Amino acid sequence: QEQVVESGGGLVEAGGSLRFSCVASPRSLSIADMAWSRQAPGKEREFVARINWISGSTNYADDVKGRFTITKDNAKNAVFLDMKSLRPGGTAIYYCRTKALSGRGIWGQGTQVTVSS
Q1: Secondary structure of residue 15 in the 3-state scheme
Q2: How far are the Cα atoms of 14, 19, 21, 87, 114 from residue 4, in angstroms, in the given order?
C-alpha cells in the first residue's frame, strides 16, 4: 500500500527551529518529487517547498525562502524540512506529498507545529 508518513511536529518558540521528516512507501515507489504544504487555522492549504527526486532541484514559497530548507534521502525514500526563525504566525499543520512518476499524488496525514510567541 502506498503511503506517506510525516513526523517531527511539536511546540516551538518563535525564532526557534524544527525539523520534519517524511517517508514514502513502499520502497519500490517511483518518485518524481516530494513536497511540503501547510495549512494554518482558518486558511487554505498552501505550498511550502518541493524537491525534484532526480535532479535535487528545489522550489520554495517566498515566505520561507532563506529560512526553510528541503532535502532528501533517496535511499530511504525520505524528505526533510528544516525550519528556522519560525514566526508566531507559523502555527500550522504541515503535509508531505509524494508525486509518483505515474503522476499520482500521495498525501500524508499531516504533522502539527505550534509556534508560541
Answers
A1: coil
A2: 28, 17, 10, 27, 22
- What is the distance between the alpha carbons of residues 94 and 36, in angstroms, rounded to a whole number? 7
Please give the backbone phi and psi of residue 75, each rounded to the nearest 5 degrees, phi first.
-65, -25
At 10-19, the pLDDT tens digits run 999 999 999 9
Residue 117 pLDDT > 90: no
* Cα torsion 76, 77, 82, 88: sign: negative
Decide which of 37 and 117 is more confident: 37
Q: In angstroms, what CA-CA distances link 94 with 18, 20, 45?
A: 12, 9, 9
Torsion (CA) 60, 81, 36, 103 in degrees, nearest 10 = 100
Looking up cell 519560525, which residue turns up? 86
